[in-house]
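Q: A reviewer asked whether we had any structural model of the full assembly, not just the individual parts. We don't, so I'm hoping you can provide one. Inputs are below.
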Amino acid sequence: MKRILLAALLALSAAASPPALAVQPDEVLPDPALETRARAISQELRCLVCQNQSIDDSNAPLARDLRLLVRDRLKAGDSDDKVMEYVTDRYGDYVLLRPPFKATTLVLWIGPFAVLLLGAAGTFLFLRGRRGVAAGADTAPLNADERRRLDALLRKDD
Amino acid sequence: MRRLLYLLPFLLFIGVGIAFYLGFERDPRDIPSALIDKPAPTFDLPAIPGQMVQGQPATNGLSSAKLAGDVTLVNVFASWCIPCKAEHPVITRLSREQGVTVFGINYKDKPEDALTWLSRNGNPYAAIGADQDGRVSIDWGVYGVPESYLIDRKGRIRFKHVGPLTPQVVEEQILPMVKHLRQG
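A: Here is a predicted structure for the entire assembly that you could use as a starting point for your response.
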């Protein structure tokens, strides 16, 4: 009983505690509106060191430098898009966690839908072909011999 | 004909499989540079504080103005970076024996550590700029040291190598590229 209580307590405390933040207190901008924008931007930018984290999540030194850079750009009066552009000019589209829609990423964006469509078309054709078979060629009437055997079988069932 | 159509999904699957398999060969850390064929960023870095050049305190660091003129290699290094130590003999040979001017960007390093490191391992750099907060390196698109950039005579970045330079990379990529760029 005690153990269950303890486990429940632990689970509860884990759920209640906020997630660990990579953003250090000294990075936070005094202007809450700017800080909110900075957070939103840094969640869109990939940390190039630990590549599956955003710079907002990552503790890598480069991620911190980029967070500070984003904030500096915002303080200098850049729009959100301008800040993104500033970073992609240096690191390429690779830093964007959401790849942009353009010629080189066409396969990435369209691919899954194209495959789905292809599959659907294939299934449709296959099913239509089968229905054609069921409704068409195999419905010749029984000949006399077949009729007799069928009647015999049906009678046996009664 | 119809039978071939049934093979289509299978063939597609094989194709996708091969594409993914080839993907394994790629190093995920090797991110294509956005700056290839673009002019090197404009920057002006001070010398490492306390650095002496021929008995005099170094006055000049490294600036983009120095990059134009000849084909040069810009190498981003730090004393705390272990692979930098590994590539140091390769860089030294490149600058002393193979005739390529190598500039250094000292990335986020303590000046005294950088100077100790240089006096211990030798200084093959024609000039070094100290990038203590790493901002200039961000302009270069640096994401991990060491990184090396080949700059053509017009000051454009033509080639980037991430990670330590090895004799093989120098022989197969750097030197042929230098030769090609000098002619062009």
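A: Points you may want to mention in the reply: The radius of gyration of chain A is 32 Å. The mean pLDDT of chain A is 86.
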